[in-house]
Amino acid sequence: MDAAALLAAGAGAGLLAGATSCAAVQLGLLAGAVRGTARPLRPVAVFLAAKLAGHAALGAVLGLAGSAVQPGPQVRGVLLAAAAATLALFALDLLGFGPARRLLRRGPAAGDAHCAPPPPRSRRPALLGLATLAVPCGLTLSAELLAVTSRSPLGGAAVMAGFVAGTAPVFGLVGLTVGRTMALLRGRLSAVLGVALLAVSAWTLMSGLRLGGWLPAGGGTAAADSARFVRTDAAGTQIVTVWALDEGYRPALLDARAGVPTVLELRTRGTRGHTRAFTIPARGEDVVLPVDGTIRVDLGTPRAGRLRFVCASGHFPGAITFR
Q1: Minimal CA–CA distance to 255: which of 189, 322, 209?
Q2: Where are the domains of the chain?
Q3: Cis before 251 (ω within 30)
Q4: N or C: at which end does the chain have fewer Cβ atoms within 10 angstroms?
Q5: β-strand partners of 231
Q6: Angle at 84 between CA 82 and CA 87, to 5 degrees
C-alpha cells in the first residue's frame, strides 16, 4: 500500500470511527489547552498542529522500526491509567479543588473575579497536543499497527497523519465548544463539565485495567454458548470460536477443557471497530483481525484457570474459563 493509500486509510479510520472515542479519552488534555481563554480558536489550532506533528513523527518511527517498538498490552494499560489520572486532575481543577489547581499552576480557584487568564501565547496547547501521544484511544492503536505493517517511514507517517487529520473536525468542534462553554460558565456551573470528566476518567481507568489484565477475574459463563462454540476436531484439538463484532465479542464468556491442545478461532464479518485489535493480556499478544475472515491463535495446552481477552482499547472484555 503506497503512502497516499495509507493516508486515506488513516483519515477514514479517524473520521468514521476514531474521532468520538479519541475525543472522549483525550478530552482532559483538550480542555486544558483551551482553559483560560475566551477565544479558543488559536489554542485549538495549536493543539491539533502539535498532535499532527507528534503522531506523524511516531508513525515514521513505527514504519522504520516495525513491530519491535510496538508497546505491549500492559504498557498501554499503564498509559490509559495515566490518561485517567490526567482527566481526573482536570476535573478536580474545574470543580475548584485547591490541590489540583495548585498542581496545574492555575492560581486561585474557579469563580475568583481577580483570577487573570493565562497568557494567550502560552506553550501549553502545543505541549498538551504532544501529550496525546501518551494517551492513545483504541483506534489509535489500529492506526499504529497499520503504520508498523507499512515498514516504511513515509508510509507510517502518512497513516498516522491521516488518522489525526480524520479526527480533526470532531476535535476542533469539541475544542471550540468546550472553550466557549468554560468561558461562559462560572462557579457552580463549571461542575457540570467537571463531573462529566470524572465519569470519563473512571471509564478510561477501567479500560486500562482491563487492557493490562489487572481486574479481578469475575464469574459466570454461559453453558449454552460453550456447547455451541467449543468443539473438538478429528485430531483431538479443542477449537474455541469467538466472533469479533463491532459491538463486542460473541460469546464473551466461555467454558473449555483444560489440559488439551487448544486453538482460539477468531472470526469477523464486516467488522471495522475496536474489536479488530484483539488482545490477550496474559500472553502480551495483540492480533489484528481482517474486516472479514478467520484468524487462528494457538493457545498451546492451557492449565485450569481463566484466560481473559479484550479489545485493544480496553472497552470490550471477555474470558475463557478452562476447567
Answers
A1: 322
A2: 3-212, 223-322
A3: yes
A4: C
A5: 239
A6: 110
Share of the chain above pLDDT 90, in %: 27
List pLDDT tens digits, range 42-71.
999 999 999 999 999 999 988 887 655 566
6-40 pLDDT, tens digit each? 687 778 767 765 556 677 667 777 877 887 777 88
**Per-residue cell: 79:** 498509559
Q: Look up the pTM and report it.
A: 0.66
Please count the other Cβ atoms lying within 10 Å of the Cβ belonging to residue 228.
Answer: 12
d(CA 122, CA 292): 47
Give the CATH H-level superfamily of domain 223-322.
Cupredoxins -  blue copper proteins (2.60.40.420)
The mean pLDDT of 258-266, rounded to a whole number, is 97
Cross-strand pairs, 131: none
| DSSP conformational letter for 305 | E
Q: Name the nearest CA neighbour of 129 among 55, 57, 50, 45.
A: 50
